[in-house]
Amino acid sequence: MPPNTTTWDLDSHTRGKHLVLERYMQAWLPIMTKWNGRVLFIDAFAGPGEYSGGEPGSPVIALRALIDHRAKSYIRSEVNYLFIEDDPDRSSHLQEVLDDLEDELPSKCNYDVITSTFDETLTEVLDDIERQRTSLAPAFVMIDPFGVSNTPMSVVKRILDNPKSEVYISFMYESINRFRNHANFEWHLDELFGCPDWRQGASLNDREDRKKFFYNLYGQQLKNNGANYVVHFELYQGQRLVYAIFFGTKNLNGCDKMKQAIWNVDPLGEFRFRGKRLGQLTLGEAVVDFSPLEEDLQNRFKSRGWQKIEDVLDFVKSDGTAFHSGQLKMKTLKPMEANGKIEVRSGTRKKSGTYPNGTVLRFL
Ligand SMILES: C[S@@+](CC[C@H](N)C(=O)[O-])C[C@H]1O[C@@H](n2cnc3c(N)ncnc32)[C@H](O)[C@@H]1O
Fold first, then answer.
1. Which of 227, 261, 283 is the last residue in one of the domains?
2. Residue nearest to atom 9 of ligand 1 (CA)
3. Which among 59, 76, 142, 171 would be 20 to 30 A from 20, CA to CA?
């Protein structure tokens, strides 16, 4: 049951979601502000800004990513934050928490707290933009509801219609699973998925098959509605799946940066991440087995002859594998070459064991 108090206790899986957000924002801010005069962070289910023990909520984490950024002095663009929270007590609590940060904000940073719903506010903002025949500033939109209601795919689509928008969505799988056969829940799921096809999954008896079906459908719907890449990971507490996060973007480097953010978060006690294609592998572990990446590379390139390293890198950045570009060369290609699993065309690199741009290789 969602809490009915203004603030509530922080649990470890929420902290996991926050750590990934923090890491991603640290990467997103300098990249996006380098190329754009104005960028936008929208926290569409913002909450009260802090937890009952005083721990920061997502709005503070997103603002702190800018305030404490190592490269803050190079960030010259306008960074606007929009916080949407429909509960008036929580939104006024959030306003107070943020007012305390005001003095630390860079001059080109603005924030607004709106007491309303995600659906209504985004619809208004996007209608306005449409009327002006312009597009949304590059935006990272966090959609973090308690349950599955009020997060329609139709609004997600309108966000993703804008060329540089990204969505970071908490997908409340346990609620979906629990209520999937309740008649009065049907329209929530129609809205959430943006199609009636979830009904095929609702009747699957095997738990894993059912989960896989719902995940695949949601990921596919994000792609049908504007995302070019979808990264997803699960947050567990002990053996219990708490929820999954879906990240949808049009940008290859955004996809890669999100995977890096997930991998770089240390495991926290009994809380774990699991990535889509990794099966048993738990992300964030100190000793990583790169054989699943070898396998992904073999499956993709083995029968395709010589490949440019740039194309191999693009594949690893994409959602075709759960690994990221920083794990390709030294951690995977070098051992593969030592074991005779790849061949590098002679004359395409100067130094053995390296794979600079221009290197041509094939998977054996
Ligand atoms: C899971 S909490 C958000 C936690 C916050 N993102 C964080 O990480 O610190 C969800 C919040 O969304 C608010 N909420 C519920 N329905 C909403 C809606 N339709 N639009 C905007 N906010 C809503 C709730 O009052 C609650 O504060």
1. 283
2. 57
3. 76
Our mutation pick for probing the ligand 1 site, out of 55, 63, 86, counting the most ligand atoms within 8 A of Cβ, is: 86
> What is the value of pTM for the model shown?
0.93
Question: 338 and 213 in one domain?
Answer: no
Whose C-alpha lies nearest to ligand 1, atom 4? Answer: 47
Per DSSP, what are the bridge partners of residue 230? Answer: 248
For residues 212 and 339, membership in a common domain is answered with no
In a domain, 136, yes or no: yes
Residues 193 and 319 in one domain: no
Calpha distance 4→313 (Å, rounded): 47
- The structure tokens listed for 47 are 């909450």
Closest-lying ligand 1 atom to the alpha carbon of residue 14: 8
Q: Is 69 left (phi over 0), alpha (psi -120 to 50) or beta?
A: beta
Which pLDDT tens digit goes with each residue over 194-231?
A: 999 999 999 999 999 999 999 999 999 999 999 999 99
- Looking at ligand 1, which residue's alpha carbon is closest to its atom 18? 117
**Tens digit of each residue's pLDDT (9 = 90 or more) over 98-136:** 999 999 999 999 999 999 999 999 999 999 999 998 889
**Alpha carbon separation from 310 to 172, 313, 354 (Å, rounded):** 37, 5, 13
